[in-house]
Amino acid sequence: MALLDVRDLVVEFPTRHGTLTALSGISFSVDKGERVGIVGESGAGKSVAAFAILNLLSRPGRIAGGSITFEGQDLTQLSTQRMRAVRGNRISMIFQDPMMTLNPVLTIGTQMIETLKAHRDISEAEARRIAITRLGEVKIPSPEKRLDSYPHELSGGMRQRVVIAIALLTEPALIIADEPTTALDVTIQAEIMSLMLALCKSHGVGLILITHDLAVVSQVTQRVVVLYAGRVVESGETGRVVHNPVHPYTRGLLAALPGEAPPGARLTQIRGTMPSLNAIPEGCPFHPRCDYVQDRCRQAEPALDSLDGHLVRCVRAHELMAGQAA
Q: Which of 66, 102, 245, 299 is nearest to 74 (CA)?
């Protein structure tokens, strides 16, 4: 049984102008200790999926359909009290900006100790010991001294290390990392991702990595789910999706990576922008931006088909996989 199994998840936002569908029946799973990437541009629905799993959707957002099964229980059916026992305990989340996570007026030690005591019946001395151990695991020098530091006294990279340490405090089964390195310098980004990968492996923790960067996904995850306009358009084993992408959107994301352009040449880009929720095109939502569009793409939304375990939502999937599309 999968650690997390999301099936046909629908998330809606009722507005005065009608109901907007942010996620339209997405499905994916995470096994124990597995690392799964969720990829897409801004507005694809990546963060909405994470907030839905943790029941943190901002009102009037709501889960309108589907199920989210974690460790055998459907999270959509849990009471507020029972959900609190899961959130921050069995499932932890790492946000992209550590200053949005850390309280600026409390020391690092106070925040870590309070987190532990909120989920466990332990003494302050034991909580302090665990906090020091976790800070050491994320390579923070002099962890005993850092417990008495305030967030503003640490660099961006160190703050994110603290956030990772807090996420590991309760020994969760799953960590959701939402663009965890976006606010950091490029060199620090690589260090943080390498650290997260090593910690997930050593602790046997499942990971959902939310990002727009397929290069990062290829280095960290084992499977990848590509979202577009709230729909899964491609998913499968990471190496296969990265090296043999089928959906035109996935191909566009990979072609846009800086390393794909010759020195001095303009970077490749996908024309147009992600459609807003109140203006999703008829048929395939990607067709206005697609280089392989045909009339049938504008008429009906394609189903998610399996090509030897590789899932693709495109009417020309077989042609594209065989290299026969033009």
A: 66
In tens digits, the chain (326 residues) has pLDDT values of: 899 999 999 999 999 889 999 999 999 999 999 999 999 999 999 999 999 999 999 889 999 999 999 999 999 999 988 998 899 899 999 988 887 789 999 999 999 999 999 888 899 999 999 999 999 999 999 999 999 999 999 998 899 999 999 999 999 999 999 988 877 777 888 888 899 999 999 999 999 999 988 888 998 999 999 999 999 999 999 999 999 999 999 999 998 887 766 777 787 889 999 999 999 999 999 999 999 999 999 999 999 999 888 999 999 998 998 876 65
C-alpha closest to that of 47 among 91, 93, 15? 93
> Residues 215, 219, 223, CA angle at the centre, nearest 5°?
95
On whether the CB atoms of residues 83 and 89 are closer than 8 A, the answer is no
Domain ranges of the chain: 4-90+170-322, 105-169
Query: 145 CB contacts (<8 Å, ≥6 apart)?
Result: none
**What is the pTM assigned to this prediction?**
0.93
For residue 53, give every residue at least 6 positions away whose Cβ sits within 8 Å of its Cβ, in sequence order, or none.
4, 6, 68, 70, 75, 91, 176, 208
Task: Classify domain 4-90+170-322 at the CATH topology level.
Answer: Rossmann fold (3.40.50)
Pairing between strand 206-211 and 18-30? unpaired
